[in-house]
Amino acid sequence: MLSGVLFALAAGMLWGLVFVGPLLLPDYPAAMQTFGRYLAFGLMALPLAYIDRADIRQLTRGDWWAALKLAAIGNVLYYLFLSSAILRSGGALPTMIIGTLPVVIAIAANLLNHQRDGHFPWRQLAPPLALILAGIACVNHVEWTALLQNPEADTSRYMAGALLAVGAVICWTWYPLKNADWIRGNPGRSSRVWATAQGLATLPLALFGYGAFWLWASASEPALPMPWGPRPFEFVSLMLAIGLLASWLGTLCWNAASQRLPTALVGQLIVFETLAALSYAFVLRGQWPEPLTLVGIALLVTGVIGGVRVKAI
Known about the structure:
By secondary structure, this protein is mainly alpha-helical. Helix content is 79%, strand content 0%.
């Protein structure tokens, strides 16, 4: 249990980095950041796959099909929605909406339980989930109040970002459930190899997507300088960093957590991603969180601690 929570914590801190990219590169379209990130992830997976080539060869056609679906929905489509939301709404609102994932995933896992983890009693699961929701509501209240006080705020653009963030939630509700199904169905497989396999499956998607975006950018007015945009060094460096740390190492840590914890409980630990993303956002803002924000964070952590103590029956 402890090692599973620590792996989930590490995954959350690494995944929180994906919220930073759009904030640091606001002049780069979401599609370019998405395909750039996963192009870096896929290329990094090649030498890793060579190191683990013996285990990679043991993956079946069904395994590769599962990896491709996970890569398409849980990686590419999810980050396309998320980066688009951040570019429209800033970092705070999408982070809060993504913060509902622990609740959404836990409920979905209980409703769609495959009898691997047992059933988590709703009466015991409800209090920690309520604490998580209350914490998210507190932080969201602070951010929404600040938004309304800004006379230059484009509320329609913010709401469009909110809808895109909901799309990201749907994608990432599906991903951990299906990923856990594969991991539980293949207990002898390595978490590292499965993370690398998803990177390999992402590579052709990223190559096709980046190529298509390049053609579109070249034909648009004003044309976006390609292949690396107006700030090549910053873009390439950030894509490599996010590709390695968030995409590969974060997935590895999450797979390790999924092997050790029940799906409904590991789903709640995605709250660490929200906390990490909030921390990074406040560092970039150069300001300390409001008191109500700190109360919300405390409620989130309390809810997670309570959630991991719920026993399946």
